[in-house]
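Deliverable D4.2, example record:
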Amino acid sequence: MKDQKTHTVVLGVTGGIAAYKACEVVSRLTKAGVGVHVIMTQNATRLVAPLTFQTLSRQPVVTDTFAPPVTFEVEHIALAQRADVFLIAPATANILAKMAHGIADDMLSTTVLATRAPVLVAPAMNTAMWENPATQENLRVLKARGVRTVGPAGGLLACGDTGIGRMAEPEEIVRETLRLLEGKDDLRGLRVLVTAGPTREALDPVRFLTNRSSGKMGYAIARAAQRRGAEVTLVSGPVRLDAPAGVHVIGVESTEDLLSVMRREAPGQDVVIQAAAPADYRPMTQAEQKIKKEKGENLILTLVETEDVAAAIGRDKRPGQTFVGFAAETEKVLEHARGKLDKKGLDLIVANDVTRPGAGFDVDTNIVTLIDREEVREYPMLSKDEVADRILDRTLEIRNARG
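Output generated by the structure prediction step:
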């Protein structure tokens, strides 16, 4: 790791009640030898005095776009260029919206728009605001552009509600910031293939059978692998997610399509991570025309098994290749996951109980257990971006242990 004293973090503090926690973030970063420059919005100054951050960071705190600069330079450009990581904690719904739409109407939004440094945001807001489609759409846009997130966590909020929206703890925010400062490039030279999302099995020209997979976990893994230097191919079923920057995406529709692409692409990969949720069954026949409702009569479908994609790829796994799978279960999670580890020729399996709050479908968090032939690692609820890095960390450890 580089000497942290050479690194600079620009910290944006917005007007959320969690602004007081940003004081500990500054304290921890400075104790780690990182230089911190703080930009506060006007609303943030109503919650925490700028003098507090100035004392902790030992640097002037910027609050006003038009204040006379300390040195003869355009301050928002200077700070944007100085940043090795641009951190916003807390990140309110307002700043996320501004960033997503390129609005620059105060010092913070102007500076983050001008930076080329990695951007990390720690969202904090009421649960209803977090779950609002506008906020989720803004996050989707930002993530597709490469913005990283840490949190939010679940629990009792300042407003009295209980749910997702509490800012990640300072220790966690600092850990993710330092991870970015390390410039982790540990997957450089590796080819990584990730699958994501559901498949669709056609019933007739307008209907299909599918499942509730959103693809978010697989897309998070692809983003993390690309960020860590890998050459990434993402094989994606039908999802409503933007392609991660710098990742080659191959779209598929059915389980048969997925298997065909995997047989073609997997042999040339160093790491294969099967995060997709292909259908286990398909209709025996596909109607050529739309099936019409017959009054008073039930429709009987005959389903046949699809080929097990993971098992097929596991059988053909070449020496030196690392194969990671997923087990999304509703009961006997560890038992079922361990069974799949050997049955499908996996080196590592990611198990989760999709019935647990925060670990199901179409959410931004997950609760996973990583199982391999050496050990079992259980994790608390984390963002899917954080889970992605944990999976890649363990995958790399397994590869390195083999020499």
